[in-house]
Amino acid sequence: MPLYVPVPGILAGTPRRLKVWPTKDLDPELFRCETFFGRHKIKISYIPTRTCIKTAGRMSAAGLVISRVNQRMRGLRFDQNGFHPNTDMHKACRTDPAFLCLDSILSQQTFHIHFIPRSMDSPLLVWAITLGLINHLLLHKFEPASANIPFLLLAFEPAALLAFVVGGPFSTARLGCSYAVFLGSLGLSIVAYRLSPLHPLAQYPGPAIGKVTKLWGLWKASHGYKYLYHKELHDRYGPYVRTGEQIREDITRTPLTLKGLPSGPNEISVIDAPAVSQILNSGGLEKGRYYEGGRHSAMLPSIVCMSGEAHTAKRRVWNRAMTSAAIREYEPLVVKRASQLVSRLREQNGIVDLVSWLDLFALDLMGNLAFGGGFEMLRDGKDVDGVGERMRGFMKVSNLSGQLPWIINTLHLLPHVGRTIQEFNDFGQNLAIQRMQNGASDEAGLEKEKPTMEMSAADGIIAVIAASDTAASTLSSLVWFLLSNPKYYRRVQQELDNMFVEGDDIFDVNKYQELYFLSACMSVYFCPILCSSVHLYPETRHCVCTPLCPPTVPDKFTSAKPAETLPEAVVRTNLDSSPRGRASTRPRTRCTAAPTTSSRTPDQFIPDRWFPNAKFERHDTAAFIPFSLGPANCIGQKFAKRELFMVLSALFKSFEMRFADGFDAEAWPLGMQDFFVVTRGPLRVTLTPRKNESCV
Length: 696
Ligand code: HEM
Hints:
Residues 574-601 are annotated as: Disordered. The chain is of the alpha+beta class. 43% of the residues lie in helices and 10% in strands. Strand 3 and strand 4 (40-46) form a beta hairpin. Protoporphyrin IX containing FE (HEM) is lined by residues 303-304, 315, 318, 462-463, 466-467, 470-471, 474, 526-527, 530, 541, 544-546, 626-628, 632-636, 639-640.
C-alpha cells in the first residue's frame, strides 16, 4: 500500500501527493519513519520548513531513482539518477501536481528524504475560512469586554477544527496553515465590514486606516502627537471624523441594545460645539473604558473611572472639598508655595528652566493638598523621588492602554505595563498611609464614613495627576505665549503694576477679578493642551473629552445648530444611546471631542477677543470649555483659576522675563507630547528681579 504524503499546495488547490512505495510501518502522524526498499533502509523525515522537498545526505550517491514521474509533472528534468538538478523541487510541486515515486534503490546506503507535506487541503481551507467568518459574526454581535477569553478561543479554535472536524494529520505545518487561513479570513471580513457601507458609521469621513483598526490610533498616541493628527483630520474631513480612538461610550449591555452594534473602531471625533455639548452634558454619554487604562486591579476605582450613581456619589465627596470656603482654606498653602517658587527662582540668578520649576511647584502644592505634604521639591530644587517622572510614566502606560479599551485587562498582564501601574499604585498607597498615620484623611469630618486607606490613595493620586500637570502646563504655556508676544506681555505687566502698587499683597484674591487682560490671556491660552490655550497647542485632555470648538472657527461649524439638524447618528449617539433608559440604536458608538483640533483655527493669540464687547464674528465662546462640561467636568476649576492667578501675578510682578539667549522659542511648542499629561521640553528663560518687588 502506498504512503501518501501531501506536499505543499495551498495555492494550487489540487492535492499533491508524494507517493512512496513499497511502504510499511509508516506513521503518517509522525512523518518520521523508516522503511525498507527490499534490503535497503530509508529514513523519511518530515521537516516543516519553508519550501521544498530537500534531498539530504548522499541521496544521489545512494542511487535513489525517482521514476515514473507523473506525466503531469511538466517541465521537470531529471538527471541520470532520476534527480531534479535543482534541489528546490518545491517550485515544481507547486506548479503541478505530481507523484514522485521512489521505486528502487541502487545501493545499500541509508539516506534521508526530507519533504514538506501538503499542509492544507480543501476541506480544511473551507472550514478555516468559515470559522473565521463565524468568529467575526460573534465578535461583532457580542463585543467582548475583555480580550482574555476571545484570545483563548481564537488560540484553540483552529486546533480544535483539525482535531474534531477535518481530522489529521495533526502536523505543525497543517496547524500553522489553518491558523493563517482562519486569521486571514477573520481579518479580511472585519476589514471589509468596517470599510463597507454596511457599517453604521459609514457616513462619517475619515482615514481608511482609522476605520479599520484602533492600532492606528494607538500608534499615533504612542508618539504623543495625536492632538496634531486630530487637527489634521478635522482640517481635512470637517467637524465629524471617524477615527480610531475612544473616549465616551454607552456601556449599556442589555440584550436589546446589543442588536446592530457598530463594531470595531466605532469612534467619531467631534468638534461641533452643539454636538459636543450634548455629548458631555447630563443625558449625554458616559465615560468610556479609556479611563481604566491605568487602574490597578487591587485599587478602588477613582472618580475619573466612575460613571452613573457611583460617580455622582464620589462627586459629592469631591465637591465638599472644593467649595468656595474650602478653597479659601487652601489659599495659604498656595501663597506659601508660590512665594517659595519666587524666592527659589530669585536664588537661581539668571537663566532657569521654567518648565522644571513650575512642575516642582505644582507637585509640591498638590502633595500638600492631597497627602498633607510629603514632597519638598522646591526646597531641593529637583524632584528627588522622581514623582513627576513616575507620574508621566504611569500616565503614558495608562493612556496607551486606554487606546485599546477592550484589551485593557490583557495589556495589564504585560510585564512593563503591570509593573508601572503596580509601582505607581504602591507609591500612592504609601503616601496615603503616611497621611493617615498623621491623622489627616478627613480633617473636617465631613464624611459619614471615614475614608479608607485605599480610598485616600485613589483620590490622592487623582488629585495629584489632575491638578499638577494641568496647572503646570497651563502656566508654562502661558509664559511662553506672553514672552513670544511682547506687546501682550507688556500689557499684562502694566495691568499688574496698576493693580498692585507698593505695599499691596499680590495674593489679594479680591483683586484678581479686575485683572481683565490677564484673564483674557488665560482664556486664550488656558492650558496649551487644554483649551483656549488649548486652541493653540495640544490638548492635555483630548482624551478627556474637552470639547473643542475653537474660539474662532469657520462659521459653518459655530452656527447654533438645533439638535435635529445634527448628523443623525450623532444625535442618536448622544441621546438614544444614553444608558439612562432610552432605546438604543447605536450603543457603544464612542465619541471624543478633539480640543486642539479646531481650537487652533486660526493659530493666533488674540486675548482681546475675550473682552465682552470684542467684535470677533467667528468667536464662539460657548466652545471654550477648558474644564469640560457636564457632570464630569473639572471639579477643581475654581481652585485652578485661583492658583493660576496667584502664580502668574507673582511671577510677572517679580521678574522681567525673556527667552534665554540661544533658546529656540519657536520650537518649544513642538516638543509638547500628549500622553494625557503633557510632556514638554525645557523652557529656558532669563529672569531679572524687578525693582518694585515689594508685593511678594
Ligand atoms: C488648569 C488647570 C486644570 C484644567 C485645565 C483642568 C481640566 C479638566 C478637564 C478638562 C476635566 C474633564 C476630564 C474628563 O472629562 O474626563 C477635568 C476633570 C477633573 N479635574 Fe481638572 N483641570 C485643572 C485643574 C484641576 C485641579 C486643580 C483639580 C483638583 C484640585 C482638578 C481635579 C479634577 C478632577 C477630580 C476631575 C475629574 C472629575 C470627574 O471625573 O468627575 N483639576 N479637569
